[in-house]
Amino acid sequence: PDPRHTGALPPPAAMAEKLRDLSQPIDVPVLDATVAAFYGTGSKEERSAADLILRDLQNNPDMWLQVVHILQNSQNLNTKFFALQVLESVIKYRWNALPVEQRDGIKNYISDVIVQLSSNEVSFRQERLYVNKLNIILVQVLKHEWPARWTSFIPDLVAAAKSSETICENCMAILKLLSEEIFDFSRGEMTQQKIKELKSSLNSEFRLIHELCLYVLSATQSSELIRATLATLHAFLSWIPVGFIFESPLLETLLKFFPMAAYRNLTLQCLTE
Lower CB density within 10 Å: C or N end of the chain? Predict the structure, then answer.
């Protein structure tokens, strides 16, 4: 027998077989070990064997049904990222073919995990990379669901933002991503009609976002939250109606932050936009 396999894990062939059977919940420790082998410092053979298994899983049309199980049971960031990659591909290319209850299930699960992790300062800072990836997944969902099938998204987000400073900081990150996706990165991924619809929704909901930004900048002492809000404003300033800028205290608020070294660069970017 191979001396390397005296530990808890079965040999690679058995691991592969175990993982490829998606008729039952995937064995998360075995998946963790496979992902670790792919990213690890083992032999070239071990890495390419792991690569082969992971590719097979990614290409399996049922693999996405295992994603929630993996996210709930793995402590390994690379494994979670692998699961989210599988989910992102389904959202991008197969979303509209999924039954409504499956779409709602994904939407609610991702939203809940984001709120749960960002409502606590410690978990939010520790899990930041994971939360950032979940934010990206949420924005991919929004590109399909909003505004028609998720009309309350912006009001819900703004309400959630007022419940805690770390949730608010993450809401700013989501809004920034949404603006960038629609205005900067969407070419080739969405039809012109869809981009137009999203732009018009963002425009009509902008008053709420604008009020939230002003509220945060006048009320918070958190430097992370101020920076996140200024970065979000910067993403929006290139396309928002000019009236907002001159009819509101936005300009004065930005000028208030300009003398502070910690915020000067972001403030300057906003002012020059």
Answer: N
pLDDT given for residue 64 in this prediction? 97
Q: What is the DSSP letter of 20?
A: H
The secondary structure of residue 21, as a DSSP letter, is -
For the stretch 135-154, pLDDT in tens is 999 999 999 999 999 999 99
Contact 179, 235 (CB under 8 A): yes
Angstrom distances, CA of residue 8 to CA of 21, 33, 43, 116, 235: 20, 11, 20, 33, 50
Question: What structural domains does the chain harbor?
Answer: 1-95 (no CATH), 98-273 (1.25.10)
What pLDDT is attached to residue 185? 67
Residue labelled with tokens 């070294």: 261
Q: What is the rounded distance in angstroms from the CA atom of residue 7 to the CA atom of residue 172?
A: 46
Q: In terms of Cα–Cα distance, which of 218, 216, 186, 224 is closest to 202?
A: 186
List own/partner pairs for 153-162 with CB under 8 A and 24 or more apart.
Answer: 154/205, 154/208, 154/209, 155/205, 155/208, 158/208, 158/209, 158/211, 158/212, 160/115, 161/212, 161/216, 162/212, 162/215
- CB contact at 8 A, 65 and 108: no
Give counts: helices (H), strands (E), the chain. Answer: 15, 0
Residues in the chain: 273
Q: Which of 76-80, 108-112, 255-259 has the lowest mean pLDDT?
A: 255-259
Among 167, 171, 73, CA closest to 120: 167
pLDDT at 158: 97
Q: Are 153 and 171 in contact (CB under 8 A)?
A: no
Q: What is the DSSP string of 205-224?
A: HHHHHHHHHHHHHHH---HH
3-state secondary structure 22-73: CCCCCCHHHHHHHHHHHHCCCCHHHHHHHHHHHHHHHHCCCHHHHHHHHHHH
